[in-house]
Design a protein that fits this description.
There is one protein chain. By secondary structure, this protein is an all-alpha fold. It has one domain (6-133): Four Helix Bundle (Hemerythrin (Met), subunit A). It is built from six helices and no strands. The longest helix is centred in the first third of the chain and has 23 residues, at 29-51. The radius of gyration is 14 Å and the shape is globular. The chain starts with 5 loop residues before the first helix and ends with a helix. The model has no long low-confidence stretch (mean pLDDT 96).
């Protein structure tokens, strides 16, 4: 069943983070980054829904779950900015090096291990920050 609440999205984010960390331990760095990106996407969507007034939640849910552009972190960060929310400075700096895209699903091979570790640390930092914002 697709997520419909902030908690649902955050639960998905946590599961994707666990999967990414497991893949990293197995040296499957490309796959770890792919799943790590979904950690960020789902965490940001959790916070967007949380910050959206109740009467607007159904429309917002439909908006953030429709279309390819709603996978892009920069689009989701724009949605948060529209709600008056910005990432903490340190996380925002780390996000500037964040080049995740769903197109990773078509790639093969591996990514640099250090880059993957840094990528997943950023994903975890976002997950933890959002977790602190939710009831």
């Amino acid at each position: 069943m697709p997520p419909t609440t902030s908690r649902d999205f955050q639960k998905v984010a946590g599961q994707r983070l666990t999967t990414a960390q497991t893949l990293l331990r197995e040296k499957l760095t490309l796959d770890a980054q792919y799943f790590g990106g979904y950690t960020v996407e789902c965490s940001l969507k959790a916070l967007i829904l949380h910050a959206t007034p109740d009467p607007d939640k159904p429309d917002k849910l439909k908006r953030i779950t429709s279309g390819a552009k709603m996978h892009r972190p920069e689009v989701l960060l724009g949605e948060l900015r529209d709600l008056g929310i910005s990432l903490p400075g340190e996380i925002a700096r780390r996000m500037r090096r964040f080049d995740w895209t769903t197109d990773l699903r078509y790639e093969t091979g591996r990514r640099d291990t250090g880059e993957t570790i840094a990528f997943l640390r950023t994903a975890k930092a976002i997950y933890d920050w959002v977790e602190g914002q939710l009831p």
